[in-house]
Amino acid sequence: MTEFIKKRTKFFSKPFSKSAVEPLSDKELMVLVQENDQEAFRVLFDKYKGPIVSFIYNMTKNPGISEDLAQTSFMKVYKSRGSYRSEYKFTTWLWTIARNTTYDYLRKKKEISIERFRSEDGKEFEIEDEAMGVEEKLVLESDKAIVMNCLDNMKVSQKEALNLRIFSEQSYDEIAETLNITLSATKSLINRSKMNLIKCVKECLEKGEVHE
Amino acid sequence: MSNEFFNGLKSKLSHKPSKDFDKDFWKGFNEEFNEKSPSKFWTFWMVPASVAAMLLMGVVFYNSSFVAPESVKMGSSIEDEDILQNMELLMHIDDEVLDVAHEEWDELLEEGQS
């Protein structure tokens, strides 16, 4: 807390300098945002706009819509700043807002069913320690269009979990919290998504499919 | 490592926002959360001028509410005088020449007015 007060004092010594607020953590910045500090909000916006747009783009496949939904998400973050509780991680709150905004859009477009995240059966997967195998390398070296097409053909729940793992930089615990499912189900879901992605890319390459 | 795999996917699948993304967002943000404050010109000149104009109109209206009855009064007193004169004439005619023919009325009226 003392450290925060020091940083904050430094911030107020240069109230309009963006660099003065950058050393603060996300939580500390959110405390300032809750006091209507728009400069602190700008720092958070600059930090997360890229991952949020990428996440939404991979869910909607539409550049314009993904930017609109990302902007809507950030507007919601500022509008509902009063409801943020500092005991929760900022990113969990942010990704929950972005995810709900995306789902609202997809639901209106009737592109998703309501089923979503009924807990996935299956045991925990310790995938963090796995070495990157030949198949994984194959996915990374293959054409972007093939990977995107494979992601697009996944179940929405798998696609979303994988996108969160890729773009949100959240831990599995945090992703579980964002998705509102258990840690075990989260790991299972992400692992299954990864396996499906690998399988799909391999099949496409074997068939020699070319995607736009 | 698996992290490497996901980081690789991140590089492959990242979608950069367009160059207008920031501008569009902050424009909308400012419209929503930063209401434009009135300009100095408006604050220091137009507001006092408007108030002064309103006061002036109020004063003019207040005064006119007293002036108007005065003129009405003046006008009506003149009209009343005419009516009284006509009444006197009619009474004179009534008293003195009751049996006059219609043709004679004009003459009598002209006489009375002269």
List the helices and strands and how they pair.
The complex is a heterodimer of chains A (212) and B (114).
Chain A: H1 2-13, H2 18-21, H3 26-34, H4 38-60, H5 63-79, H6 90-108, H7 134-141, H8 144-152, H9 156-167, H10 172-179, H11 183-207
Helix pairs in contact in A: 3-4, 4-5, 4-6, 4-9, 5-6, 6-10, 7-11, 8-11, 9-11, 10-11
Chain B: H1 2-13, H2 21-33, H3 40-96, H4 102-113
Structure notes:
The complex is a heterodimer of chains A (212) and B (114). The radius of gyration of chain A is 19 Å and the shape is elongated. Residues 114-130 of chain A have low confidence and may be disordered. In chain A, α3 (26-34) packs across α4 (38-60), α6 crosses α10 and α10 packs across α11 (183-207). Chain A is mainly α and 212 residues long. Chain A is 69% helix and 0% strand. Chain B has one domain (2-113). The longest helix of chain B is centred in the middle third of the chain and has 57 residues, at 40-96. The model of chain B has no long low-confidence stretch (mean pLDDT 74). The chains are: A mainly alpha (212), B mainly alpha (114). Chains A and B meet through α4, α5, α7, α8 and α9 of A and α1 and α2 of B.
Q: How far is it from the N-terminal to the C-terminal residue of chain B, by CA?
A: 127 Å
What is the number of strand segments of chain A?
A: 0
Q: Give the biggest sheet of chain A.
A: none
Strand content of chain B: under 5%
Question: What attributes does this structure have?
Answer:
heterodimer, A: 212 residues, mainly alpha, Rna Polymerase Sigma Factor, Chain: A, Arc Repressor Mutant, subunit A, 2 domains, B: 114 residues
Gist?
The complex is a heterodimer of chains A (212) and B (114). Chain A has helices at residues 2-13, 18-21, 26-34, 38-60, 63-79, 90-108, 134-141, 144-152, 156-167, 172-179, 183-207.
